Amino acid sequence: HPTESGFTTDVLALYDWAKARSGNSTILFWGHSLGTGIATNTARKLQEERGVQVDAVVLESPYTNIREAAAHIPITTIYRQFPGFGYFILDSLALGDMYFASDENVKVLACPLLILHAEDDAVLPPHLGRKLFETARNAYKDKTKVKFITFPEKLGLGHDYISFNPELPVLVK
């Protein structure tokens, strides 16, 4: 079954494979939703264990950590009112070694970091992306390496369609 460390190990193997075949091409990690935690985990592990900095990290519809994300996703709305929600639902993630602590990971990253979030994201609220941005911005020595771009509600990009925005390639570049 999938695990946080398994995902991270898989992305490291993919990075090694791509790096061996890409010459001097830029390699960045792009994570969406749950994948944002995997992207920051892998970038941090690469930096701390190998002394290698990925060229950039792009986080699309991110969250701070899996516990906080689970507390805000719509499916948990009905359960939040019950006693024990924190223990039985949120703490059970930690018991399964599921943290996806992007908020901790960005504190040690030094590579360029771009956070993208749609204002009409109904799955992961934009305030989680903003909070992650503030955490990174406070930790980074070079503040110019941390960017946060929001997409207005009128675009209707929600949680899944930021990649459909025709301006995205220019924004990322």
Automatic annotation (TrEMBL):
<feature type="domain" description="Serine aminopeptidase S33">
    <location>
        <begin position="6"/>
        <end position="70"/>
    </location>
</feature>
<dbReference type="InterPro" id="IPR029058">
    <property type="entry name" value="AB_hydrolase_fold"/>
</dbReference>
<dbReference type="GO" id="GO:0047372">
    <property type="term" value="F:monoacylglycerol lipase activity"/>
</dbReference>
<dbReference type="Pfam" id="PF12146">
    <property type="entry name" value="Hydrolase_4"/>
</dbReference>
<dbReference type="GO" id="GO:0006660">
    <property type="term" value="P:phosphatidylserine catabolic process"/>
</dbReference>
<dbReference type="GO" id="GO:0004622">
    <property type="term" value="F:phosphatidylcholine lysophospholipase activity"/>
</dbReference>
<dbReference type="GO" id="GO:0052651">
    <property type="term" value="P:monoacylglycerol catabolic process"/>
</dbReference>
<dbReference type="InterPro" id="IPR022742">
    <property type="entry name" value="Hydrolase_4"/>
</dbReference>
<dbReference type="GO" id="GO:0005789">
    <property type="term" value="C:endoplasmic reticulum membrane"/>
</dbReference>
<protein>
    <submittedName>
        <fullName>ABD12 lipase</fullName>
    </submittedName>
</protein>
